[in-house]
Every structure is written in structure tokens, then in C-alpha cells.
Amino acid sequence: MCAETQYPQAQKKTDEKTPPHSQFFDASNPIPPPAAIAPPIPPPVAAVPPPAMTPSLSDVLLTALLTSNPRFTWQPLSSSQFRASSPTRASTASCATTFFEIFCDTYNIDGEDCTRLKEVGFRPGDSTGPNLDDDLKGVGFTFFGWKRIHSANSRFKSDLSAGLF
Fold first, then answer.
1. Based on the structure, what is the number of domains in the chain?
2. Which of 26, 80, 126, 157 has the least C-beta neighbours within 10 A?
């Protein structure tokens, strides 16, 4: 059966402007297109781990220091080394001296220059100028000796920022 014999009302009377007339179709009530179904949205994934999961900067620096220098060994002090009447506070001088000696050994600074740096109150990472000041001349630094100190301090800062020290 062809479409012309099945629906006699629409025989050659329909085009784009005139819709067919039938009991099943009315131009005022067209069939709506199916609603577009959006794909399901996946749950959000945490981009950054929570702060409790990441180590602090001091932990990272201490770990780098302990692993990079094999001569530095951590030995906890026993309680018998302290008198009962002595206050229980950490000694910053011994830690700073040990770290200062590690700095001098790592960057090949000779003993005389290390002694001069201690007199001036230098700490590794302090800002140093490339030129020799009158104060530094008075302590006994030479021009080339200060250049070595300045370049060692610059290398220390770059190593520290790269996580090597």
C-alpha cells in the first residue's frame, strides 16, 4: 500500500506552508522534540591534598639537611647530661655553630674566614653585597676572600631554594 491510498486527505495538498490535515495531526499541536538529557556530572575531585597531608616547610628543609650531609647525625641528648637545677631550654648557640660549620665545610670556606664571619655575626643566607665594606676590611677580609664568601652565600641561597641544602 502506498501513502497516497492510505491517507486520501493528504494527496498532493501538502507542502512546507500547508501541513496535512488528518485526525492524528493538528498544526496547532505539533509533537514536541525530545528533551535533551545532560550527561551526569562526575563528583568533584580534590585538586590539592589537605594541609594536614602535606609536610611543613621546616620538615622538608630538615629532611633535606639530614639526607644531604652524611656527617650530620642526630643524636638525642640523654637526661643525665643536665643537672636537675638547670633550665630546660634549647641551646641555639650550639645549633647555629654546627650549622655554620656545615656551611663552611660544604662551600670550602677556610678556617680563618669562618672565624672572621663569626666575629661579624654572619649567618648563612644573610644578604651580602659584592663589595668589601670598611667594617669587613677592619675584621681582616681581603678583596678576593670576600668575593669567595659572597659567591658561597649566593650558592647557598640557590641551593636552599632548589631544596639541595
1. 1
2. 80
